[in-house]
Amino acid sequence: MSLPATGIEVRIGIWVDTADLAETVERCRSLAGEFGAVAAEIVRCDPESPRRGFVATLHCAAPWEAGETAAQAMRRAVGPVAVKHGLNDEYLDFFGDPEKSGYADLWFDEQEFDGYVLYLVLAAHGGLRLE
Fold first, then answer.
1. What's the whole-model pTM score?
2. Are the CB atoms for 45 and 55 separated by under 8 Å?
3. Are 16 and 24 in contact (CB under 8 A)?
4. How far apart are CA 26 and CA 72, in angstroms?
5. 19-33 residue pLDDT tens
6. How many helices (H) and strands (E) in the chain?
7. 66: left (phi > 0), else alpha (psi -120 to 50), else beta?
8. DSSP string covering 77-110
């Protein structure tokens, strides 16, 4: 499966501190519905890690709006996640040229919410191949 190459991909990284995979899946399902995720990757935390439970990455696809630059599209695409979690999109840093293959990372300290910890919000050009 590939995300649309004509849009922006937003990756949302969360940590769910539970031994119950079903609880993690349900948390992902809830966030996926809210942010339009089209895929999720869930991995059990390494036993050597200070984290317990599961980490998950949600992959969301956002379309380009007419007349937007890549930087504008990336900022708009992370907007709903930033608003819900009280993050300031002024801290969206761009790496490389966003008009080419650059990406944007929203800088923030990990934040705990109802049943999960948000640790990553990233925007990039679409077209990611998911296995």
1. 0.89
2. yes
3. yes
4. 32
5. 999 999 999 999 999
6. 2, 7
7. beta
8. HHHHHHHHTT--GGGEEEES-TTTT-EEEE----
